[in-house]
Amino acid sequence: MLLTDLAERGDAIAEALARRPPAEGPWEALREAMLDARTEVLPDAASDLALGRMLHEAPSLRARLVEKRLHWHEALVPLVTARIEGPHAELAAAAIVSAALSCLDVASGAWIASDGTADLVALYDSAADAIRR
């Protein structure tokens, strides 16, 4: 059940990304798509915190999280590629998606460590800003 939820989250992000304005930059579009999907698929913060703890603390579940994030990556790269011009658009899109998902992981870990009291969006933004400098 937990793993189905993760797959659905990735699908929701991809669907939200496909709805973003075409002229929006890849980083902005991914951020907004993650926010849009978050409101669609999260039952409540307490449930999400409990799920996050399980995924980050149990090695077998952590491995499955990585596996599901690879599925997210495969779904998101083509959508981000369409937002980038140039001969290496797919390479750039893959790097941006990988970085954005890593920022999400880092932000989620910090949010879990704060017992859900920190602002997850602000944590993600800080992580993304660090990479984009």
Strand content: under 5%
Number of domains: 1
Please bin the fraction of helical residues.
over 70%
Q: At CATH's second level, what is the architecture? A: Orthogonal Bundle
CATH superfamily: Tetracycline Repressor, domain 2
Instruction: Output the structural class.
Output: mainly alpha
**Count of alpha and pi helical runs:** 6
Cα shape: globular
Summary of the model, kept short:
The chain is mostly helical and 133 residues long. It is 81% helix and 0% strand.
Characterization of the model:
The structure is a single chain. The protein is mainly α and 133 residues long. It has a single domain (2-132), classed as Tetracycline Repressor, domain 2. 81% of the residues lie in helices and 0% in strands. It contains six helices and no strands. The termini are far apart.
Defining key terms:
mainly alpha, globular, 6 helices, 133 residues
